[in-house]
Structures are given as structure tokens and as C-alpha cells.
Amino acid sequence: MSFLDRVTKAVGEAVDRGKKEVDQFMRIQKINGQIGDSEKKIADATAQIQQIKAAIGEKALEMLRAGTLISPELQAFSEQIAGVEQQIAAEGATIAEKRAEIEKIKAEDEAQNAQGAPAEAPAATAANVARAPAPASPAAAAAPAGRVCPQCGTPAGGSGAFCMQCGAKLAAQA
Predict the structure, then answer these.
(1) How far is Cα of residue 140 from the mean position of the Cα atoms in its chain?
(2) Residue 162 in 3-state DSSP?
(3) Residue boundaries of the structural domains of the chain
(4) What confidence category does residue 133 fall into, taking pLDDT thresholds of 50, 70 and 90?
(5) Rounded to an integer, what distance in angstroms lies between the CA atom of residue 14 and that of residue 21?
(6) Which of 45, 89, 169, 174 is the most exposed, fewest CB within 10 Å of its CB?
């Protein structure tokens, strides 16, 4: 057998193996697709069962409350539901009270604005205090006329472009 025949035979065998592998892969993928379809059907059916169970529970609860169904086991569940419903109602009432408080505060503010009375000054916040210039230090008051920080009033000694106290940019020396 010649070299060329052996190469041709080896290439043919490799192609045959590749075809078999592709065929096997395609068959597996097809079956995996069918499995996926079946799993989706199972999930849909399970969801339907859950919906039916919920509907049964709603109906049983209605019947328990109406007195047409008497079951001690179900009555305990009904009492649990009633307790949770009471908690929900109480929280709803709390929310309504809080919203009424908000409306009362807004109405007070609107009434003050309508009368022309100044609204209460907002409480000083850390951000407002940080932005406000600090009172001039005694050293600044005693310093000779020269560069002073426009932000905090600290005397600017030396030739720096920024305040050593607060970091604000200093005006150029005259």
C-alpha cells in the first residue's frame, strides 16, 4: 500500500468518525430538546395544580366563614389567616395615620406661607455647619493686615496658594 493510499484511508476514517460523532451529538441534542419540552409541561402542570389548590383553599375559607363547612383542622388555618388579616389591617391603619400626619405638616407649612410668616428655620446640619465660615481666630484678629483666608479667616503666613487651616484657595498677594 502506498503512502498516498494510507493517507487517503486515514482521512476517510477520520471523516467517518467525525460524521458518527456529529450524528451522535445531533441525536443527543434532539432527545435533550424532547426532555426539555417534557420538563416544561411538568412545570406548567405543577403551576396549574398550585392554582387549583389556591382556589380550593379560597373556597374552603369562604365556606368556613359562612358556616357551611365545619372542620376543626381547617378552622385552625382560618383562625391563623384571620390573625394575619388583623395585622395587615392594623398596619394599614398605621400607614393612614402617618399619611394624615404628613398632610397636617404640609397644611401647617402652607398656612404659614399664606400668612406671610417665616417658616421655621431648618435645623443646622453638619453640611451647613461645615460650609459656613468659621469665626476668625484670635490669632487672625491680632495678625497684621495681610493675606487672610476668605473661607475661615485664618491668617495666611508664607507664600502658599492654599489655606493651611481649611484648604481654601487664597487670593494672590498684593
Answers:
(1) 50
(2) strand
(3) 1-70
(4) very low
(5) 10
(6) 174
